[in-house]
Specification:
alpha/beta; single chain; two-stranded antiparallel sheet; seven-stranded mixed beta sheet
C-alpha cells in the first residue's frame, strides 16, 4: 500500500514538472534578446510617475525580461519615427552586447517597429504589433478630410509639449505627416515599401517569419470598457467611423493584423491595450500586463 502511494506521488510530481511554467514563475518572461517597447501617436516613455506602457515594463522585468522603453516623436511620419527608433535600437545593442532585439509597438508604434525590421532585419528578432495601424485607420481618413490647418499647428504644439515633459524636447513634430502615415492611403504606400508580415488578404494573417524576423499581432475590439475611464466616451465616438466593423475605437481589428494573429477581439479599447488610463481597463478581461507577459513567454519558447 505504501509503495503504491509513493509510486502515485512520484507520478504526480513528474506530471506537474511537465506542465508549462505559470505566468508568475521566475524566468517566465526572460527572453534571449532585450524587449523594446515603442509608443504610438502622442505617446511617450514616461511623464513623471505615469508610464505609457503602464505597469507593463515592470511586469515583464519581474519575470526576468530585459526591457527598454523608447521615445520617438509623439507625432511624425512612420519613416521619421522609424529612423529615430533604429538609432535607439543600435544604442541598446551597444549597451547590452545583444545582437538583436524584440520590438513591441503599440498603435503607430507597430509600423514604426516594422520599419526598423524592414531596413535592418539583422538587428531584429521579432516584431509584435499591438493595436497596430497596419492597414490604416478610418479615423485618420476622416480627420484628414475635415481638420483645418490650425488643428495641425495645435497638434504639433501638444506633441512638442509631450516630448518636453518626457525628457525628449528636441524630437521633431509633424502632425500632418503622422495623420498621412496613419491613413489608409498612407499605410498602403508604406506597405508597398515595407510589406513584411502584412496580410495579403483583407482580414487574414501575414507571413509568420520574413528575413529571420518573427511577426505577431493582437488587438482589442470593444471601444467602451469601463465607466470610470474618461477616455472611453471619446473612443466610443470615434468608433462610429468604422461603420459597424469590429474595432478598438481607433483601429479596426482587420487593420491590426500582422503576421501571426494572437487575437483581435480582446474586450479592450485602444488605450486598454497598453493598460491605460493608469490601469483602468475592463475588469472582466485578461489584464493587458498578463498579455504582454504571455507574449514574452511565447518569444522565449521560440528561442528569441
Amino acid at each position: 500500500m505504501i509503495k503504491r502511494y509513493w509510486t502515485y506521488l512520484a507520478a504526480c510530481l513528474l506530471a506537474l514538472a511537465a506542465l508549462p511554467a505559470p505566468s508568475w514563475a521566475t524566468g517566465y518572461t526572460q527572453t534571449k534578446y532585450p524587449i523594446v517597447l515603442v509608443h504610438g501617436l502622442f505617446g511617450f516613455d514616461n511623464i513623471g510617475p505615469v508610464d505609457y506602457f503602464y505597469g507593463i515594463a515592470s511586469g515583464l522585468r519581474s519575470g526576468g525580461a530585459n526591457v527598454y522603453v523608447t521615445s520617438v516623436s509623439a507625432a511624425n511620419s512612420t519613416e521619421v519615427r522609424g529612423e529615430q527608433l533604429l538609432l535607439q535600437v543600435k544604442q541598446i545593442l551597444a549597451a547590452t552586447g545583444a545582437s538583436k532585439v524584440n520590438l513591441i509597438g503599440h498603435s503607430h508604434g507597430g509600423p514604426t517597429a516594422r520599419y526598423v525590421a524592414s531596413v535592418r532585419p539583422d538587428l531584429v528578432a521579432s516584431v509584435s504589433s499591438v493595436g497596430g495601424v497596419n492597414k490604416g485607420s478610418r479615423v485618420a481618413d476622416v480627420l484628414i478630410g475635415a481638420v483645418p490647418d490650425v488643428t495641425y499647428t495645435l497638434a504639433n504644439a501638444v506633441s512638442g509639449f509631450i516630448s518636453f515633459l518626457s525628457g525628449s524636447p528636441t524630437l521633431p513634430q509633424n502632425a500632418r505627416a503622422a495623420a498621412t502615415s496613419l491613413s489608409t492611403a498612407g499605410t498602403l504606400a508604406f506597405n508597398s515599401n515595407h510589406p513584411e508580415g502584412v496580410p495579403t488578404s483583407a482580414c487574414g494573417e501575414g507571413a509568420y517569419q520574413v528575413h529571420g524576423v518573427y511577426y505577431f499581432s493582437w488587438s482589442g475590439a470593444q471601444p467602451y470598457t469601463n465607466v470610470l475611464d474618461i477616455s472611453d466616451p471619446v473612443l466610443a465616438l470615434t468608433a462610429i467611423a468604422f461603420n459597424g466593423a469590429k474595432n478598438d475605437g481607433l483601429v479596426s481589428s482587420c487593420s491590426s493584423h500582422l503576421g501571426r494573429v494572437i487575437r483581435d477581439d480582446y474586450a479592450m479599447n485602444h488605450l486598454d491595450e497598453v493598460n491605460q488610463m493608469v490601469g483602468i481597463t475592463n475588469l472582466f478581461e485578461t489584464s493587458p500586463v498578463t498579455i504582454f507577459r504571455q507574449q514574452a513567454n511565447r518569444l522565449q519558447g521560440l528561442g528569441l
